[in-house]
Amino acid sequence: MMLMMSVSLVAETSMMDTLLPGDNACMVLFDQNEENFIILNEARAAVQFTPFSTHKIPHSLIALETGLVQSVDSPLSWDRDKYPEEDWWPKTWAGEHTLRSAIKVSLVPAYRQIAREAGTETMQSYISQFRFGNEDISSGVDSYWLNGSLEISAMGQVNFLRKFYAGELGLEEKTTSAVRDILVQEETEKYVLSFKTGTGTIDTESGKALAWLVGYVERNDNVYFFAFNMEARNFSEAVALRMKTARSILSQLGLIEA
C-alpha cells in the first residue's frame, strides 16, 4: 500500500518556512523502499508547467533508442542555418559535444536537431509511451518542451523518473542504463546524486522565469526520487536559486551533504 505524507507550508511549522521560498515553489520526493511521498506545497505539486530542459531525459532516451545517436559518446551536430548561434548562448555550448556533455550543459540546438530528425510521429509516439506530462507536442516538434504545448507537474516528473529508473518505459536496457550513466552529477562514499536542470522565461513581458531540478539520490540501498520547481523574477534569479534551494531541501532531509 502506498502511503503519502504531505507537509504543508504553514505558519506554525517554522521548519517548513526554511525549506521553500514561498507558494511559488514545490518539492515532491518519493522514498522507494518505504513507498512514501513527501510533498512540500501539495497544491503546486499537481500543477503542470513547461519542462524546459528536464525534457532532455526522455529526449536522450529517444535519441538512443531510435539510433539517431549511436551512443552517449558519439559526436553531435546540428544545422547551423536552422539553429544559428545567438548572443545569449552560453560559452559551454562551444566546441564539440556528445550526448554525455550535451545533457550536462543543456545544449538546446543539438536536441532540437534530434527532434527534427526523429519527426513528429516518432517523438509523439515515445512521449505518449512514456506518459510524459500532458503528452502534447502540438506546438512544434523542435520546441514543444520550451515553453510550448508540453507540460508536466512535479508529481508527474517523479512518476516518470521512477518508471525510467526501473526500466519500465518499454525501452532496451542498454538505453536506460546509458542515460542513467550520463545523469550522474555527484558521487560520494555515502550517496550518488543524479539530476537534470531546466530553466527558462515563462512571461516575456515581466521576465518571470521557471526553474526545475529533477532526479534521484541513491543512498543506503535505497533510491529517493525528487522534483523541485520554482518561479523567480527573472532567468538569472531562477538559475541562482534553483540549485541552492533544492540542495538545501535534500540536505535538510538528510539525503545529501549541503
Structure description:
- By secondary structure, the protein is of the alpha+beta class.
- The chain has one domain (3-252): DD-peptidase/beta-lactamase superfamily (Beta-lactamase, 3-Layer(aba) Sandwich).
- 35% of the residues lie in helices and 21% in strands.
- The chain contains nine helices and seven strands, in the order βαββαααααααββββα.
- It has helices at 14-19, 42-45, 56-65, 99-105, 108-118, 120-130, 154-165, 173-183, 235-252, and strands at residues 3-7, 25-31, 36-40, 184-187, 191-201, 209-219, 222-232.
- It has a seven-stranded mixed sheet, with helices on both faces.
- A hairpin with a 7-residue loop joins strand 5 and strand 6 (209-219).
- The longest helix has 18 residues, at 235-252.
- It is globular, with a radius of gyration of 18 Å.
- It starts with a strand and ends in a 6-residue tail after the last helix.
